[in-house]
Design brief:
The chain has 402 residues and is an alpha/beta fold. Helix content is 36%, strand content 20%. The chain folds into two domains: 229 residues, Response regulator (Rossmann fold), CATH 3.40.50; 111 residues, Response regulator (Rossmann fold, 3-Layer(aba) Sandwich).
């Protein structure tokens, strides 16, 4: 959720049709290893926004998947007695759910993908309307929207923690603890609306007052002075803010310029390590959000390897790490099921597969189990409060039962 392309993306893109679809055909198994040309190709599908002004998020997720694929190929992938080379096929949907549905069908029908990863709530819900019909496929859902599980789609695996994990702990961390006034200024996307709805209910339950909803489209609005001014007119003690990291940082900066000295609750779409790139970090003081990746023990090696691989000096965040560590679970499930063609059998093998993943693929709050509803669960989840001295104070987060 930073500017479109970056130095980390030194791979080729093939422009398809009129530019609405971009196929990111990254070199797989570049280090050689067991996944040789003698085996079969196993396609992993991916549909996300990977071009335009909000491409950074989609590219981060894609890079995490690609890094895992390259490492798995290097060590060799054998399923049901056959050798496979994993290949990531990526199509650009520009975060449009209808395009995600089209992309998913293409990836399954034309490319032969049995697993498709989608990193945005609207696109996931569109894919869920398709993946249990004639062309069945397993859906790797990278969004914290709990509605993904509410659909009871038996072929969906939800990767990140539900955002409902964060709301009450966030409220408890800010000084008012829910008893003051809450301003609303998140992104107006479907995801932002769901976050706002849930946070509003919890804030009211804690005894606080909720002010007018001034949520805006973070992707199209460039002048944030007006919406910020409207929000501050209500004299909020805390502001709920967040969407793509870059506009989130600029909105926080604008609020500080206009004299706001209260706290921010930052939804999990925005990442502290990225926010620091786009505004004076001091503007982020007295804010609560998900913990930077560096707050988790043992992440230094992964961060170093990632930056070297993609020649990147940009922050390495949870979007990259969680997708990197999730893909091996899907591959292990294929191994346990002994098939690459039966999505239901692969899904049924997930509980066993979670425990079979090599520790080298585990970066931060790696899943140690999967719920009956298809949600990866970890006991190592943390969030962070950035205090008035600019120091992060991490605290544990419990994942609620689905």
């Amino acid at each position: 959720m930073t500017p479109a392309s970056s130095s980390r993306m030194r791979r080729s893109f093939v422009l398809v049709a009129s530019g609405s679809l971009v196929a990111a055909l990254a070199a797989c198994g570049g280090d050689g290893g067991g996944g040789s040309s003698e085996g079969e190709t196993l396609v992993i599908g991916y549909s996300a926004g990977i071009s335009g002004g909000s491409a950074e998020y989609g590219l981060n997720v894609q890079n995490g998947l690609q890094m895992a694929i390259d490492e798995l190929n290097a060590e060799g992938v054998e399923i049901g007695g056959k050798n496979y080379t994993l290949k990531l096929e990526s199509l650009d949907d520009q975060y449009q759910p209808s395009t995600t549905g089209t992309n998913a069908q293409r990836l399954v029908q034309k490319e032969g993908a049995k697993i498709v990863f989608v990193p945005h709530a609207g696109g996931i819900k569109a894919a869920q309307e398709l993946n249990t019909t004639r062309d069945k496929f397993l859906l790797g859902a990278y969004s914290s929207d709990p509605e993904i599980l509410a659909s009871k789609n038996e072929l969906t695996v939800m990767i990140p923690p539900s955002f409902t994990s964060y709301i009450d702990p966030f409220i408890d961390k800010v000084a008012t603890k829910g008893t003051g006034s809450l301003g609303l200024l998140t992104t107006s996307s479907e995801f932002g609306q769901e976050w706002t709805k849930a946070a509003t209910a919890s804030w009211k339950e804690a005894g606080g007052k909720v002010l007018d909803n001034n949520n805006i489209d973070y992707g199209s609005v460039s002048d944030f002075a007006g919406p910020v001014s409207k929000t501050l007119a209500g004299k909020p003690d805390v502001i709920l803010v967040g969407g793509p990291s870059q506009p989130t940082a600029l909105i926080i900066e604008e609020a500080r310029k206009q004299g706001y000295d209260g706290a921010f609750m930052i939804i999990d779409q925005a990442k502290f390590e990225e926010l620091e790139e786009f505004t004076d970090p001091k503007n982020l003081n007295d804010s609560v959000g998900i913990a930077p990746l560096t707050e988790f023990d043992g992440t230094e090696d992964f961060i170093t390897r990632y930056k070297e691989k993609f020649k990147s000096d940009k922050p390495v965040n949870a979007d990259i790490a969680l997708n990197y560590q999730s893909l091996p679970v899907f591959v292990e499930a294929m191994k346990s099921a002994g098939t690459v063609d039966d999505p239901q059998a692969i899904r049924d093998a997930m509980p066993e597969a979670v425990g079979n993943v090599d520790d080298k693929f585990k970066v931060a709050f790696a899943p140690d189990r999967i719920s009956d509803s298809g949600h990866f669960v970890s006991d190592g989840l943390k969030a962070a409060y950035r205090n008035d001295k600019g120091k992060y104070e991490s605290f544990p987060i419990d994942q609620p039962k689905d």
